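User: Quick sanity check before I run a bigger batch. Here is a single chain. Can you write out its predicted 3D structure?
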Amino acid sequence: MISSRVFRAQGVVVIVLSLIAAVVWSAVGYRLSHSQEAIYYSTEPGFLTTNRDHLAICVDSTVADVGNEELREAVFAALERVKEHPSFIPAGLSQGTSEVTIGCPGPARATQPDFNWELGGNGETQVPWVEVPSEYRTFVYVVSEEHLWDESSGRVAHRAPQEYYYDGQVGAEVTSAVYLSSGDVQDSEAIVRYLTRGFGLTSSEAEGETR
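Assistant: Done. Predicted structure follows.
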């Protein structure tokens, strides 16, 4: 009699513990599924990945004669003019509130040896694939003029891929990099031109340069 009661009590405890475990694991699974939502390549809107809901640009100066705050202000002013481009709204870049922030979460690869302007990596085959795209649609760097030279074409360049992403079905460039010289920062027309190109919009003054 006593042993049967003990057995029943133990059975109840096991059931309760199983229910508690099920609830806990359900909660963990819910959190994981929501914290690791899939990111997809998308051109609608034109931010290129589904983890972006507005146009974000980061800036970084690698030279001593241009400060990051000066660069941020110059790029922000240029962005206001780029918004007047006839393709800016059709490209889906006007959604949300645009921002320009100091500090980019990736290197200025054009300053590294054997930089490949076409691929955005170092060497002939290296491509900068990322596991998670950054929040920024475009990175803007200031580098020395020597780093703007594209050896393969023998011309000055200002745009390169910064991040490539594969979502399981599509692999593509999702982040661009715009490279400026110190002189470009003082030239609002130049920033507008190169930023326009960085967004993939056409520029009427693109001739004479590779990118």
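The CA atoms of residues 56 and 99 lie 5 Å apart.

User: Great, the batch can go ahead then.
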